[in-house]
Amino acid sequence: MSDEGRVAGIVLAAGSSTRMGRNKVLLDLGGDSLVQRGVRLAGEAGLDPVVVVTGDFREAVEREIRDLRCVAVFNADHAAGIQTSAACGVASVTGACEAAVVMLADMPFVTAHMVRTLVERYAETDAPLVVSRYGGEVTAPPILYDQALFGEVARMRAGCGREVVRRHRERAAVVDWPADRLRDLDRPGDYESARREFAADGASAAAHPGSS
Question: Where residue 126 sits, what CATH number does that domain have?
Answer without folding.
Answer: 3.90.550.10
